[in-house]
Design a protein that fits this description.
23 helices, 4-stranded antiparallel beta sheet, 611 residues, 5-stranded parallel beta sheet
Amino acid sequence: MVELAGIIVLGILAQWVAWRLKLPAILPLILIGLLVGPISTFYTENGQKLIEPIWNGEKGLFPGDSLYYFVSLAISIILFEGGLTLKRNEIKNVGPVITKLITIGSLVTFFGAGLAAYYIFGLNWQISFLFSALIIVTGPTVITPILRNIPLKKDVSTVLKWEGILIDPIGALAAVLVFEFISVGEGQAYTQTALVEFGKILLFGTTFGFTFAHALTFAIKKNFIPHYLLNVVSLSLVLMVFVMSDVFAHESGLLAVVVMGMVLGNINLPNLKELLYFKESLSVLLISILFILLAANINISDLALIYNWKTAALFAVIVFVIRPLGVFLSTQGSTLKFNEKLFISWVGPRGIVAAGIASLFGSKLLAKGEAGAEYITPLVFMIVLGTVILNATTARFFAKLVGVFLKKSNGILIIGASKVSRIIGSYLQKNNRHVVLIDNNQTNVDKAKKMGLEAIAANIYSDTLSDNIELNDVGYLMALTGNSDINKYAINKFTKHFGENGAFRLVTDDEMGNPDNNPKEGLFSHTDDFIKLTEAIRQYPAIHEIALKSTEHYNSLIEITKADPNIIPVFLKTPDGDLKIISSFSEQFEDITEKFKLVYVGKRFEDDQEA
């Protein structure tokens, strides 16, 4: 009981430390696992581990294969949660790159790492390729915290995110096929078995995932599931799908839960946000337990096996040769620049799926007496720990070194997706600005998406927005909701994360009625609040531009807009196309010359007003 409670307490403590230090949680989790596992044998009186995951006849938490059943079920939940976050609209620009990364990139890693393990470590071909199959996966649970604090172009962060989640079942599938090869033996029998297993995994994995995703959607929309049972019913269904698919085709459960998550994540499901929050919390707990258990399960003898120069050589080849080779072959002909490809090559940390399946297959092959099986678990853990430490400590520096670190974040986050926000957001997007709209009203979000805008259904009172790696290039914040409390809250909470270049909100009715109360973050005009802006756009749903002659001309037009409620200034457009947000201190700009333009919403200026 003490050991089990200790794992949970230490796991959550590690998560907190990782959050404070802005590190991937996997790093302190593995270190804690090693400290209470193999390393503890050096300082305990009887030479036993403080935490023994598998029952050894005297102590242990899980008898027999129970630990690996638990690992399998936990990984299924983690992959399902990852699948929920995958959105089709995120891969418009990088879809082909992701497809190649999880196909060509996987093949390069599989054959390259297999050859490296064979020639460097002298393992047999079967064990070498099992090792290479296991390290195909890049872990989404470790990529996200690494990228969270690095402002990057959205395309780069999206590639890494999608690769991390989609490649998990690919790596698992490759590992299963190699495991089958080792179990069946070489020759014609394997060829037939592999093809049958491959077909079964694809068939049952996609069928079960797709079918039960739509079944759950139907049940939720028809209110067959009471609200208080929604999360636990979804959880039980995920576990059922994983197990059922696995019964029909061994290891197809991983593919099934990823497909199920992806389908649910791209369906207009009213309760999706609550489901996602629940799964995220559960995933944090499971990851905390899993990494400590799996690291503690390693023995000192396992670590001694890889304590030599060959380990460093293998790590160097995989990280500095094979990963870049796979990335550059996969991104050939894409819109990604050379420095962006370099950065993607550098960031490839392995995570929970690699460690979990390595422990599972390694122990099974050891029990069968397979030669070289003792190397599987420690070698994979070495790659996991090494890549995480390397990327966690150097990713930010390397991003600056190769020039993908955004020195100025020009993306714009708009709080609210009403018609006002959609029209302004559409104009900004047409002028080559990355715009993201946030709203908890799904109807508004859907309308924004139909206009081709990037929109997220989210609650701004949640902490998840700050962790969204696709918002890393956002440097401007505009709160455009009709609720002044929400606007003020957004400014107070998110200015640090998303408003480094400017954070603005609409003025309130009270502020509008008091000329002396003009907030520094006031947006557009001190005489126009949400109601006036909405009314102007209702009558004149368009954005116009007017050429300026001088600062005096600009100021005269601003005075006209103050007197006319149907004309509201929003941006100043510079000769090079840059857009500057106009605050309620409208006379903030100087040195305005010809070729500058005033951007405004509402009705057009009269001819005599333009002069």
